[in-house]
Amino acid sequence: MINIKTSREIELMKIAGAIVGETHKYLIPYIRPGITTKELDNIAYNFIISKHATPSFKGYDGYPGSICTSINEEVVHGIPSNRKLKEGDIISIDIGACYKGYHGDSAWTYKVGKVSKDCEYLMEHTEKALFIGLNQVKEGTRIGDIGNAIENYAKEHKLGVVKELVGHGIGSNLHEMPDVPNYGKRGTGPILKEGMVIAIEPMLNLGTANIYLLDDDWTIITADNKPSAHFEHTVLVLKDGFEILTKR
């Protein structure tokens, strides 16, 4: 069932989303060569707690971190560790925060120092793909319209579209209906209604769209070990558009 949020739920989700956006902003100065992903995780954890919220991901299905830290060929769900960031890396940081029982969720991919032109290209067009998808959102739009717009943009820029991983509804549960794929046909799928809240999150690869799961049962990487980027916002569906709840 797809939930339409009440005004009270929306207000709580706006706070949760703002905390997520603030956490991203707070982390930016720390994303530099030499820092470990575990250190970033601790910084994010302490910041989220200071805002009277809890990290949505910690303990979710047994996930050990507070945030996901996915470097270079890691698409999503990279586990924070003692691995140090290096000059030229790109890192996707996925953050969720739960405030009074309601979640916000946003991922962003960051440069570590100076990166290659290929990585610059990947990041630029994955971020643009997110906003191409967001711009489809309003009451009456179908889910397939969002995925189709993202997929067409990605293909136009010769980027691989990960199909096994999708965006999602969000609310009192971190993942709710509907699924929001980054591919699809226009005019298909559930119809968006005012008051729905969804997370749109293109995951695009510089090479193949194929992925596989590492032995840690969490980290997903590209099959050809080429870089991947991930950008995500949680948005509220309005009659004539959308409101980003996880602004940075």
How would you describe this protein?
The chain has 248 residues and is of the alpha+beta class. 27% of the residues lie in helices and 27% in strands. It contains 4 helices and 15 strands. The strands form 4 sheets. The protein has a 5-stranded antiparallel sheet with strand order 8-7-9-14-15. Strands 1, 2, 4 and 5 form a 4-stranded antiparallel sheet that branches. A hairpin with a 6-residue loop joins strand 7 (167-169) and strand 8. The model has no long low-confidence stretch (mean pLDDT 98).
| End-to-end C-alpha gap | 30 Å
Which regions are unreliable across 5 or more consecutive residues at pLDDT < 50? none
Assess the beta-strand content as a share of residues: 25-35%
Q: Please state the overall shape, judged from the principal axes of the Cα atoms.
A: globular
The biggest beta sheet is recorded as: 5 strands, antiparallel
Write out the strand line-up for the largest beta sheet, numbering strands in chain order. Answer: 8-7-9-14-15
Mean pLDDT across every amino acid position: 98
- Percent helix, as a range, is 25-40%
Q: Give me the secondary-structure category.
A: alpha+beta
Radius of gyration: 17 Å
The secondary-structure element order is HHEEEEEHHEEEEEEEEEE
Number of strands: 15
Number of helices: 4
